[in-house]
Amino acid sequence: MPASSFPGLSKAFSRGFISQLRPKMLFAIVLPFLVALLSAIILLTYAWDPLDNWFYDSASKWAWFQSASNSLSDWGFSTMSDWFAGLLSFIALCAISGVIGLAVASIVIMPMVLKQLSELNYPDLERKGINATTTSITNAVKVSAIFIIGWLVTLPLWFIPFMPIVLSLFWGAYAFSHMSRLDAIVEHATPQERNSIIKKHNKSFWLIGLICAAIALIPPFSLVMPVYSILVCTHYGLNALQESRKQQLISSDIQ
Questions:
Q1: Contacts of 187 (CB under 8 A, 6+ apart)
Q2: Do the beta carbons of residue 176 and residue 212 sit within 8 Å?
Q3: What's the CA gap between 5 and 51, in Å, rounded?
Q4: Which residues neighbour 227 within 8 Å (Cβ) at sequence distance 6 or greater?
Q5: pLDDT at 233 over 70
Q6: Whose C-alpha in 47, 111, 132, 255 is 20 to 30 A from the C-alpha of 162?
Q7: pTM over 0.85
Q8: Which is nearest to 147 in space by CA: 64, 198, 199, 213?
């Protein structure tokens, strides 16, 4: 896939990396981690058993699953639920706690990100957004709800070979892109500009989310991705808005 198909993408990732190294952004990593950790403790305490049972009940209807479960019993496992369903329950609840941490980061950290990047990288970009806080919170709740419902509905598909990787990448890409792409420009862009940029650059935001989701599969980097994905989406979104306004000025001058 040629880089020219997604102009500004490599610049957004490199600028995001530089911004991530600033002291405030390094400290910001702690918040989504702590929120995700607390959420994971609560979910694993109260939701593990019901989810584990639901996993097993769903998978038990599949003939190949019953066959595999019987085969595993020869190795000392009484049922597949003893290990595989329990493992998937753990992964699923950790993922849900992760998106909760990402949602909190988008609401709490995003204003700090926008302030710092606006002053350092986009000082001439005029703020024309309206109802920024309400829009940001509504978007975070919406994306979190879709992620959690979609994640749980597709969980039985994890028993199909290779689907855990596919689903992890898809839902990770959705969370990282959709949680941040609106917040990135909500304070600077008018509603019309927001809709135009999100529609025009939808594939690029998805690609940002996919790359961040793939990196997040590597355990150490998963701690950084909530804030880093916000930084990359913000750089990309603000740059796209800046370029859009330049194009409009050029068009106005020509006319």
A1: 114, 127, 129, 132
A2: yes
A3: 42
A4: 20, 25, 28, 29, 32, 105, 109, 113
A5: yes
A6: 47
A7: no
A8: 213
